[in-house]
Amino acid sequence: ICSQRIKHGKMPTDPVMVKTIVTMDLGERIASNYGVRTVDVLTGFKFIGEQIGMLEKAGKVDSYIFGFEESYGYLSGSYVRDKDGVNAAYLICEMFSYYKTQG
Q: Where is the Alpha-D-phosphohexomutase alpha/beta/alpha domain (predicted)?
């Protein structure tokens, strides 16, 4: 997600990733290599959605690039605020498409 956003000039100036406190720190380590700030929240997608809402109220919703909980689910855009398997399936399709072009 980060490399593609950078490649296409769509990485915000202050990118934010949200993860729950029960999620391992691997995502945070990867994100930090791209200059993405990590926000830790309590367990549950409602707390990830709450952070998206707070960014929206502050006029910074475009800063949100990704949120996840290790046990279940991903949110790669600000338009969905709860668990969404469709979004994860879309990301997997996009990943397959990219790697197919790479051989």
A: 2-99
Tokens of 20: 């729950």
CA 11 to centroid of chain Cα atoms: 12
Mean of pLDDT values over 26-50: 94
Edge-to-edge strand list for the sheet holding 16-20 = 37-41, 16-20, 64-68, 74-75
In CATH terms, the fold of domain 2-101 is Alpha-D-Glucose-1,6-Bisphosphate; Chain A, domain 3 (3.40.120)
Give pLDDT tens digits for 51-82.
999 999 999 999 999 999 887 777 777 767 66
Q: CA nearest 77: which of 101, 21, 88, 25?
A: 88
Average pLDDT over residues 14-31: 94
Q: Which helix (H) or strand (E) holds 40?
A: strand 37-41
The domain limits of the chain are 2-101
d(CA 21, CA 101): 36
Helices (H), ranges, 58-84: none
